[in-house]
Amino acid sequence: MSLEDAGIDQIIERIFRQDAGRVLANLISTLHDFDLAEDVLQEAFIMALQHWPKEGTPANPAAWLTTTARRKAIDRLRRAKVLAQKAAQLELLNELIQGGEEQEEEEVETIPDERLKLIFTCCHPALPLEGRVALTLHTLGGLKTSEIASAFLISETTMAQRLVRAKRKIKEAGIPYYVPPAHLLAERVQGVLLVIYLIFNEGYSSHSGESLMRPELCAEAIRLCRAVIQLSRLEPALAGNAEAIGLLALMLLNDARRAARTGPNGVLVLLEEQDRDLWDKKQIEEGLNLLEVALRMHLPGPYQIQAAISALHAQAERPEDTDWLQIAALYGELLKLNPSPIIELNRAVAIAMADGPLRGLALLRQLENNELLQDYYLFHATRADLLRRIGRFEEAALSYQKALELTQNSAEQIFLKGRLAQINY
Amino acid sequence: MKYIVLIYNQESFWSNLSPEQQGQMYAEYGSFTEEASKTGIILNGEPLQPVMTATTVRVREGKAVVTDGPFAETKEQLGGYYLLNCNNLDEAIEFAAKIPDARAGSIEIRPIMEIAQPS
């Protein structure tokens, strides 16, 4: 099939998807207004759909879109000028027109990449976490409101409102559009990585609904993390961001197991029972290489430790080759940095795998009064699994039942019901 | 941009301090305010009398109803404010984080609504 057969509309759509984040970041930087920038970019896109099929795609589509959108912004501001003499808008209009004159009719050849500013703004701690996630996917990922809404299983109206509120707060609370100054940078980078990781996890293990995974969210998180690492290279204060590289390694290694994680009918397949031939070897190799790069920086952190755990799984040719002792030790390290009952649970699992189910059950007993774990389906599923392994089926069945009550995800429910059937309950 | 920074803390926090500790807090506020004033960020700022001195007024059916006490009973009480002029929210956050009461209470930052002047 030739390119023409693929349809010019699809080509434009692809270009748009690829460049939207960058063009938008640049427009917000000059227009200081998220809504105006989004609107004029949309108009520029419609212009592209009209012109490119006749005139061919321009050599530098991003620059074409930026220039066109900027002209649209000038038109809009001129119209607004007639309606109301707003001082700030007039000033902006003058800036834009002067900028345009310098560039004459020629299109800007290279547009500065302002996406790093955009991501720091979208991930600002003064925004609600769900707003940060939505806005990052929308502006940097170029995902439509309807796409984000369906990924998070909420209505489009609710998602639209979430985006409007976040943008309004940026504007009215004066959340800056910049790469934060050096003394704020470390904390803010953590905030950006957290948002990326949340997007990945939402895609990797969905809390509810039909499908266990939404791979497009995983892919988007990986793409965002690559962009952050690439852009960070240009900022001296951000060079040597080992945790960002660690996070990318972690996501690549986990995502590499995607094809093996679900069986027929979308049923969950546990790590131990996965067909390891289905793992994406190339992606694992990239993850392992990145992890090594990160570790060599000697700036350890939670993402690198988690990536190291994932790497040990990825390197085991058969489940019985897994270095569980090393994994248990890494969870111990993680606990020191990040005390959490969920990590305690994971550590208990690793110890159970290394030293036997009885040892694991003893550790779970120490955790059973934790309120968070009492409502966590994996805590009960883990206990059920350890009991099953030593043949205490009756107790195992009770724990499987409890786990079943606590998950809304249908793939996980099917898995748990399958286990119950296996032990004849 | 202009921001108001509202300082909330339990009044008991202050009343439970020994005279020396209170003196130390006042001194901290003094040096903090003086230091911050050099940068021109503070437009105004005052401490408030305790909430027991508060009076709340509501006009209902044309009549002013006056009640004793604050608008809402809260765990932490509004104890003072600063009015700031800064470039962005991050500057206001940085300022707020240095307010001595931030260590025990909470600081709320609110942007001031800009009312367009009729031309």
Structure description:
The complex is a heterodimer of chains A (425) and B (119). Chain A is mostly helical and 425 residues long. Chain A has helices at 3-6, 8-31, 34-55, 61-83, 87-103, 115-122, 129-139, 145-151, 156-172, 182-204, 215-232, 242-255, 258-261, 281-295, 302-315, 324-337, 341-355, 357-367, 371-374, 377-389, 393-406, 410-422; strands at residues 208-209, 408-409. The longest helix of chain A is centred in the N-terminal third of the chain and has 24 residues, at 8-31. The mean pLDDT of chain A is 87. Chain B is α+β, with helices and mostly antiparallel strands and 119 residues long. Chain B has helices spanning 11-15, 19-38, 89-97; strands spanning 2-9, 42-47, 55-60, 63-68, 77-85, 106-111. In chain B, the strands form 2 sheets. A 4-stranded antiparallel β-sheet of chain B has the order 2-5-1-6. A two-stranded antiparallel sheet of chain B has the order 3-4. Chain B starts with a strand and ends in an 8-residue tail after the last strand. The relative contact order of chain B is 0.31. The model of chain B has no long low-confidence stretch (mean pLDDT 93). The chains are: A mainly alpha (425), B alpha+beta (119). The A-B interface holds A 85-86, 124, 126, 172-176, 180-181, 184 and B 1, 3, 86-90, 92-94, 109, 111, 116, 119.
